[in-house]
Amino acid sequence: MTDLLTKYDHWLADDGPAALVIRENLMPVEGRDGVLFPATFAAGENFPGGYNIDGPLDGENICLVDTVGSQANRIEPLFATGEYAKLVPQIVVAAGETSVNVLLAGHRAGDALVRCSELQEELRQAFKAVQRGDATPLAKIAPTSLVFGVWDSRDTQAKLPRLVASTIRAFCVRKLTRSAQYVPAASYVDDGLLDEPPDKNTKERYAERGFIHVPASATHGGVIATGGIRRDATLLLAALRLLRSGDAESNTRALQRYVLGLALTAFTHPSAPVGYLRQGCTLVRDPDKTGEFAEVYPDGRRVPADVTHAAALEYARAAAEAFGVGESRTVPFDKERAKRDVQGDGSKKPRAKKNSK
After folding, report:
1. Can you give the three-state secondary structure of the chain, one letter per residue?
2. CB count in 10 Å sphere of residue 324
3. Tell me: the pLDDT tens digits for 111-168?
4. How do 19-28 and 292-296 pair as beta strands?
5. Contact predicate 152/110, CB 8 Å
6. What are 180-192's pLDDT values in tens digits?
């Protein structure tokens, strides 16, 4: 056990690598020249909306296929399943007829669902401890927040960086369009089943409800990545080494090993970051292109790394046992806390009721 626990201690040393890096070449299941559908984004300042493509559409460009946040959302729920669930506390909030694992909540430990439960004060104190240089309390409640980052933006403002970051991009893409035509099951207006729409608003309502023909022309049709597709993933060891457990070095090392085990498990998982991403975008590894798994040092040296997922999981189990996984529990959603939160008073504890006279 001791040898296993110290196996990766050189990564935790001050002169260790700055990061571990994985670069994987991907392709659509249809083949390298297959059409894939990147993520689409709402319009914003100087951005018309749609695909995020930087560079000219007829030359060298880069298209964002899956964001770092989206990738984290695909990987982190791994720790709510099977053997992986034993590595972290399973915290569930029961809200009405719905029970939500914190690992699946939108903002994880910083989510409104968690904030409006009996965990509120415990998490507040854990975030404050992080600000004082002690990440152990948070690791006992929501350790994946130390791996994938968290920002307690609505309360303490405590902020932790992502240790594991993954992004998928396509290069030199050709943007395509597609058109379609909806044909209703019957000629509702012509056959007298519905009145002729008297105005534009009524006609739009007919279209929305499927009563008239609806053409859809030149909408997003995906892209063809002539320059290939690549997933870039990073495990930031330099940031992990900043995690502390107060002033006790032995406690800090136990914490860092535990977080490293979780990070390595997520980082090396063979299928979580790829596969089915969305309709029209199922990606697999390109068997004919060599990727990279390397330790990257501060001086720029790149040393090949060789950590299998099985080895990472074995290390994670040992580190979790040594650190002590926090308690799993189910807590109820607190409607009164939610009301106070909406009123901007969520940080206050409930007032004790006065005895009636």
Report:
1. CHHHHCCCHHHHCCCCCCEEEEEEEEEECCCCCCEECCCEECCECCECCEECEECCCCCCCEEEEECHHHHHHHHHHHHHCHHHHHHCCCEEEEECCEEEEHHHCCCHHHCHHHHCECCHHHHHHHHHHHHCCECHHHHHHCCHHHHHCEECCCCCCCEECCCEEEEEEEECEEEEEEEEEECCCCCCCCCCCCCCCCCHHHHHHHHHCCCCCEEEEEEEEEEEECCCEEEEEEECHHHHCCCCECCCHHHHHHHHHHHHHHHHHHHHCCCCCCEEEECCEEEEECCCCCCEEEEECCCCCEEECCCCHHHHHHHHHHHHHHHCCCCCEEEEECHHHHHHHHCCCCCCCCCCCCCCC
2. 12
3. 888 888 988 899 999 999 999 999 999 999 999 999 999 988 888 899 999 999 999 9
4. antiparallel
5. yes
6. 888 999 999 999 9
Question: What's the CA gap between 111 and 69, in Å, rounded?
Answer: 15
pTM of the model: 0.86
pLDDT score, position 46: 84
Domain residue ranges of the chain, discontinuous segments joined by +: 2-172+226-340, 173-221
Nearest to 240 by CA among 258, 215, 216: 258
